[in-house]
Amino acid sequence: MDAKYLQITESIKRQIRNGDYLIEKVPSERKLADSFGVSYMTARRAVQQLIEDRFFLRCENGRLAIGPAAVENAGRLNVVLVLPNWPIPSLDKWRKALYELVRERNGVLKTVYFDHEDDNVIQEALTGDFSRVFLELPVIPELTRQRLCGMRDKVVLLQHDLTDFGLTCLDAASPENMGLLVDHLHMLGHRKIALLNTQPLNEVITGRIEVFRRRSAELGLEHQFFNAPVNTFERADHKAYELAGGIIRRNCFSGTGIVTTTIEAAIGTLRAVHDNGMRPGKEISVCAYGGLESARLSIPSITVICATDIERQCRNLLCDILDRRTPERLLYSWEKMSIWQGESSGPVLPR
Question: Is the CATH number 3.40.470.10 carried by domain 175-307?
């Protein structure tokens, strides 16, 4: 078996190749010893080997830095994906496609997670040595937006539309598509409907709400709006379950159809309908904006508005962004969206 210091050396080389030091500073020998659970002398010997292999270099102040062998591929594609530290199923398709495309280009994809909108890890990712920074922030504070505007060439916002500020945005599909869900319920005979939202209010969610209200009014539908945005680390599906369940038990909603702003809210709403003795798709129809992957696996399957040929479109949109020095355009969204009807929506039952 190789000496322990050589095992540490190879482990650190893999970390470097995987982009671990594009954000973090190179630790000292003492910290490396603690990290690997070895003696200081073993860590020091590993560092010396890394210096000889030109992966580390010793600065004049005695600190360690990345060496020339580690930056020989400095021109390669280095991408960071900055995400909230809680699950967002609607981002899974983008993560998968981005990972595949970066690897195909012999690049590095680093994923980092933040706990709140002012987390230091966001600023560290923005100032790291990355070709592109893909960032998903539920709500973008004014100070952060100003910072992003100064980094337009490499920042890509997920699920936002801040193109008015010159920022590149991905999957910021037109909120006008929300009208298709209202039309769908209207076609099925629903005349009293509601919109349920558990997402923090940003320009995208607000746009969907406005379109729902406008289209409902145009069709002469009675409509209500129930809003309970999640806080940090709260799950949108759990919040929707509580919100929808309370609405049903208190008889706050006498309609027959519920539209949700996201698939997560639809999942929680469906369960609340079921647990309160009603049949989804029968007594109450439920449909959602986006999330076809989750919608198909749900029981009952959920009616959603979605893009066609999602995998191909994901790859094409990301290719356009990754393969240009600066993105060709600002808004990267689906070519076309349409209704995918699941079992969660159906015609109004006679009463």
Answer: no
What pLDDT does 1 receive?
39
DSSP 228: -
pLDDT digits (tens, 9 = 90+) for 216-235: 999 999 999 999 999 877 88
- CA torsion sign for 296, 299, 300, 305 is negative
Measured CA to CA, the distance from residue 40 to residue 29 in angstroms comes to 7
Cβ contacts of residue 137 below 8 Å, gap of 6+?
A: 84, 117, 122, 144, 157, 160
Model confidence, pTM: 0.74
Q: Please check whether residue 207 is in contact with residue 179, taking contact to mean a CB–CB distance below 8 angstroms.
A: no
Buried b (16+ CB within 10 A) or exposed e, 26-35: bbbbeebbee
Position 267 scores a pLDDT of 96
Provide the residue type at 7 as one letter.
Q
Spans of all domains in the chain: 4-66, 78-172+310-332, 175-307
